[in-house]
Design goal:
Number of strands: 10
Distance between the termini: 11 Å
Structural class: alpha+beta
Shape: globular
Length: 233
């Protein structure tokens, strides 16, 4: 066998091995597709991830609550509602009324990349909910954004009919639905999102991929050795 033929054979072998390794590497879930819940007090300058769910949080008159639909790994990774709308901008045309409070509600339906397959997010909007003084954030949301959809675990699944189905399912790296497993942690009416996925996968390279790379290195070294040996012969 000539040196050129040996090189072509070695290249074909390495390419075939690399293709097999990459093809066998599992796709890692990017996160969960869900509605995250945010709050901002009357004097606050930025959003804070809510520590309670909308069913239990009771905002005060002048507060702002926000909901953002996106794919997120956990609360630290969650995307905030976009826009600078504050209480004054949302509720300036809603006069105060005895026995009620006004809560500004910001709805961000997310981006097309975060949308479930076959759906497109509606345009974001704001609304001023005028509700009873003891009303929860969930009741304020229901006053301005029906229909709402919850699952049996009280996880908020849909706002104003979006999305049409699904609830906290895993999303793969391409944004497509991977399965319908529930998130690993939940709060009342909202996903907690701080526990790791039950699979224990941290998103790093798989053992199979690392092993495959090692195999490629061995194959490459053996091919070089054989080529040098033929040259000496």
């Amino acid at each position: 066998m000539t040196t050129a033929v040996a090189r072509r054979a070695a290249g074909a072998l390495l390419l075939a091995a690399l293709t097999a390794v990459l093809g066998a590497a599992p796709a890692h879930a990017e996160g969960y597709r869900y509605w995250s819940f945010w709050q901002r007090g009357a004097q606050a300058a930025d959003w804070a991830y809510a520590t309670q769910g909308p069913a239990t949080l009771r905002p005060a008159d002048g507060d702002v609550v926000g909901f953002r639909f996106a794919v997120s790994k956990d609360s630290a990774d969650a995307a905030k509602p976009r826009g600078e709308a504050g209480f004054g901008a949302v509720c300036d045309r809603t006069p105060a009324k005895d026995g009620t409070k006004r809560v500004a509600v910001v709805l961000d339906f997310g981006t097309p990349a975060d949308a479930p397959a076959g759906e497109r997010p509606p345009a974001g909007r704001t609304a001023c909910a005028q509700v009873a003084t003891d009303a929860s954030a969930g009741e304020a949301l229901a006053a301005v954004a029906k229909p709402l959809r919850y699952n049996s675990a009280a996880l908020l699944c849909g706002i104003s009919g979006y999305p049409k189905s699904g609830c906290g399912e895993k999303a793969d790296e391409g944004g497509a639905r991977a399965d319908t497993a529930s998130p690993s942690g939940e709060r009342d009416g909202e996903r907690d999102g701080e526990k790791a996925d039950a699979s224990g996968d941290d998103g790093g390279p798989s053992a199979g991929l690392i092993g495959g790379i090692a195999v490629l290195a061995v194959l490459g070294g053996a091919t070089v050795w054989q080529t040098r040996r033929r040259r000496r012969g």
